Amino acid sequence: MNTVEKLDRYAELETEVANNLQATNEKRQMLDAEKEKLLASILTPEQLVQMSEIKAEFVDKYESLNNNDDLKAKQSEMSALEKEIQAETIVKGETIKAENHKVMCVFTPAKAKSEVIVDTGMLKGLTLTIPKLKECWHEEVKTMPAKAYIR
């Protein structure tokens, strides 16, 4: 699978995960509404016992929503694809767009950064009158690594 195909697959997974999370949230809301309806219907003295039974009945339903193996597998595949895509983008040295242009991996080239370090014990202004003071100035070049991210 080439990088563009991986980006397309990443976009598909991203949509599926978002849809799955939305469906899960809707199911949670339905379960909450059903639970509240059942709790509201309890008006007897043994109310506490029945409430605990109803709550126990919903524990497994909520747990099954949290243990979605399909969603976990897709998230795991997305994570692996993201790492591969980022590495390939850095090697290629340019931004790569998916066929559907829903996602892309943006390349940021490495940069050199220079910094002046001054000995604060000496005054900068004196370097104009005393050139020897320039010897306390040092310049370092720092390199920022290339980066790639998916958006």
Secondary-structure element order, as H and E? HHHEEEHEE
Estimated radius of gyration: 30 Å
N- to C-terminal distance: 20 Å
**Uncertain parts:** none
Beta-strand percentage range: 15-25%
Counting structural domains, the number is 2
Shape: elongated
Percentage of helical residues? 55-70%
Summarize model confidence as the mean pLDDT: 81
Largest sheet: 3 strands, antiparallel
Walk across the major sheet and give the strand order: 1-2-5
Total count of strands? 5
Structural class: alpha+beta
Helix count from the secondary structure assignment: 4
In short:
The chain is of the alpha+beta class and 151 residues long. The protein is 57% helix and 18% strand. The protein has a three-stranded antiparallel sheet, with helices on one face.
Molecular structure report:
The chain is built from four helices and five strands, in the order αααβββαββ. The chain is α+β, with helices and mostly antiparallel strands and 151 residues long. A three-stranded antiparallel beta sheet has the order 1-2-5, covered by helices on one side. The chain has a two-stranded antiparallel ribbon with strand order 3-4. The chain is elongated, with a radius of gyration of 30 Å. Helix 1 packs antiparallel against helix 2 (47-66) and helix 1 packs antiparallel against helix 3. 7% of the residues are buried. The model has no long low-confidence stretch (mean pLDDT 81). A hairpin with a 6-residue loop joins strand 1 and strand 2. It folds into two domains: 3-108; 111-150, no CATH class. 57% of the residues lie in helices and 18% in strands.
